[in-house]
Structure formats: C-alpha cells, structure tokens
Amino acid sequence: MRALKYIFPLWTGIMFYAVAAFTAGPSGLGAYKQMEAEKQKQLENLRVLNASRSELESVKSALEYDEDTISVYARNLGYGGSDERFVRIVGLLSNPDAPEISAGEVYLYDAPIYKDDKTIRVIAIIIAAFTMFIIVITDTLLFIKDL
Fold first, then answer.
1. Cα–Cα distance measured from residue 121 to residue 44, given in angstroms and rounded to the nearest whole number
2. Residue 119's Cα: distance from chain center in Å?
3. Which of 9, 64, 70, 72 has the lowest tally of Cβ within 10 angstroms?
C-alpha cells in the first residue's frame, strides 16, 4: 500500500490530461462547438447565395427572352433606342434607381480557439510532479517525526 501512493501522481496527471484534452483540446468539445457554429454560419451563407443565384438566373432568363426587359435594363445603363435623345447633366449619376445585382459575398471562417496539446501535456506533467512533491514531502516529514 505504501508504494501504491506513488502511482497516484501519475494517474492524477493522466486524468487531468484526459479531461483537459476532452474539453479544451484541439479535438475537444470547445473546438467542436465553435466549428458547429461556423457550420451554421456557412449554411446560412449558402442559403443566401442560393437565393441570389436563383434571382440572377431569373434575370438571365428574362434578358434572354424578353425584349422589354432588355430595353429597361439598357435605359438603366444609359442606352436608348435609335430615335431617342438623352440630355446628361454632368456630376449626376446616370441612374440612381438602377437595380444593383450582387453575386454574394466571400465568407471567411473564424478558426476555433483551443489549447494546444503540448501545453496541456506540460500542465499535466507539472500537476503530476507537484502531487509527487507533496507526497514525498509528507513522507519525509512523517519519517523525520518517527525518528
């Protein structure tokens, strides 16, 4: 039984490492939850991009097959028919009411925040060494007291 207590610091360090790696490590629960949140943001961005894509496809098909749509877009861009004349005022935008078509935005993900595995190992070794130190000091004091 006396020698068994010297194994306790080893198991203390191992248990600390296991719990810390499971909760705060690179593959732990904290990093997993952060990646789940990023996944939801990516899915939302994908939904917005799909809505934008369907809108752009409808505009494209309207421009391919409808002459009136082409003429409306041409007028918004400042073009007109051969029998039309335009007066432009310098300093004003050509058409502030022209629809702006966006193809979406680039979404950059946030890297998960976690404790490095090497850091967790070093802390576990320090805890095990400190526990061993406490046991050795206790045994030494008990030995001195028995003398």
1. 38
2. 22
3. 64
